[in-house]
Amino acid sequence: MQANVIWKPILVATLVCGTLDILLAVILTLMRGREPAAMLRFVASGPFSQATDMGAPGSVLGLAVHYGLMAIMVVVFVIAARNMPALLTQPLLWGLVYGLVTYVIMNLIVVPLRFPAAWPPKTLAIATQLLAHIVLVGWPLAYISRHYLRRTGF
After folding, report:
1. By CB atoms within 10 Å of each CB, which of 45, 84, 134, 148 scores lowest?
2. Rounded to whole angstroms, how far apart are CA atoms 10 and 4?
């Protein structure tokens, strides 16, 4: 398999899913009367605790962290789909499953380990995060993967 065959769905899915997810975060942030730049600094503070005090560079770092995490989620699914082509046959089902898996990993393991005060999550947070992980990440990722990997014989 040529290297560009696997990189194309990874790049496209990272950009599409990452953009959809961050747009939801920005909308929710604005609805709460908060600043998107501060939300991005909070995202960056996951791996870089000092990012909340960094101003604009911290916000840019938050965007990079967001897309970096999305790239990891995408790479795992695309490699799995390449090795288990059955994942490409039912993108609605496997996108749902993968959205649930990424929700559990991020919201029940990663976030509570880094931000213990975020536990337990509120009902609205659970609902919005499930929406994001399934509808904005899992499903587009599964369909994008199917589109690109099936065209290349996988």
Report:
1. 84
2. 10
Q: pTM of this prediction? A: 0.90
Please state, as a whole number, how many other Cβ atoms lie within 10 Å of the Cβ of residue 62.
27
Residues 6 or more apart whose Cβ sits within 8 Å of residue 5 = 148, 149, 152, 154
DSSP 112-153: HHH-GGG-SPPHHHHHHHHHIIIIIIIHHHHHHHHHHHHHTT
Query: Which residue shows structure tokens 């938050």?
Result: 62
Q: What is the mean pLDDT of the chain?
A: 93
Alpha-carbon torsion (94, 78, 41, 38), positive or negative: negative
Q: What share of the chain is helix, strand, coil (3-state, %, to 5)?
A: 85, 0, 15
123-138 pLDDT, tens digit per residue, is: 999 999 999 999 999 9
The whole-angstrom distance between residue 89's C-alpha and the CA centroid of its chain comes to: 22
Going by C-alpha positions, the residue among 105, 137, 100, 120 that lies closest to residue 24 is 137
Q: Give every CB contact of residue 2 below 8 A, 6+ residues apart in sequence.
A: none
